[in-house]
Amino acid sequence: MRRADWTPLRAALARMRDAGLRVPLWWRDDDATDASPALTRLADLADAVAVPVHLATVPANALPVLAGIAAKRRFVPVVHGWAHVSHAPAHEKKAEFGAHRPLPVLVGEARAGLTRLRGIFGADCAPMFVPPWNRISPDLAAQLPAAGFASLSTFGPRARADQGGVALINTHVDPIDWRGHRGLRDPADLIAATVARLDARRAGHEDATEPLGLLTHHLVHDDAIWDFTAGWLDEMKQGPVDIWTHPTGEPPP
């Protein structure tokens, strides 16, 4: 693995500090269903860097053992679709909650996902909807408040603070090379991408109030991905950052 040169990131964080700006920072990890050595490693890293993980959990496949783990570790469970199954045609990009099925079916599955995870985690489950593959029908987004959700999370800088009546809290940095070897992306590229996000916020080209999100997938990490993730979080925490955590609260009646 190429050694990460954090100098550009440190300089970008210094520019944010000099501009009197702070960075809300959050962490989302996708595809949780069960206890595993990878989940333990994720929890240990969260403890080491003192940053909570918003654990995007697949409701249809989630096992009750996760409740005990989440209660003892820095995990905030959130709703990751329903079954993580694509319903898009083979020639389209994968999507479980795209506009490929009737809207009432989409709303029903989203609501069922929240109900099931609230049944497992209770009030510790945050009302955030994370569509698998980060794709969602705009019509469904508009119905998420009625299904009990307060926020929606996909990937990329948001154009506005809400979508369809829910807060839009996206992720922005993903260390995995999904289109290539599925290992760690070039660290220089990842650092440059983070710097670009910070500089865009400082220049007013992107929403500086949106929590800057790290997206990970613990089940497919190799050592290089784990090491970069730990380094990135540690470096970010040296800057003018505030750790953001999604509000939870009591389950709706």
Based on the model shown, name its key terms:
TIM Barrel, 253 residues, 35% helix, alpha/beta, single chain, four-stranded mixed sheet
Could you characterize the architecture of this molecule?
With 253 residues, the chain is an alpha/beta fold. The protein has one domain (24-183, 207-224): TIM Barrel (Alpha-Beta Barrel), CATH 3.20.20.370. The protein has helices at 7-18, 37-49, 65-72, 103-121, 138-143, 187-202, 223-237; strands spanning 23-32, 53-57, 75-79, 128-129, 151-152, 162-163, 166-168, 212-216, 241-243. Helix 1 (7-18) runs parallel beside helix 6 (187-202). The chain starts with 6 loop residues before the first helix and ends in a 10-residue tail after the last strand. The relative contact order is 0.21.
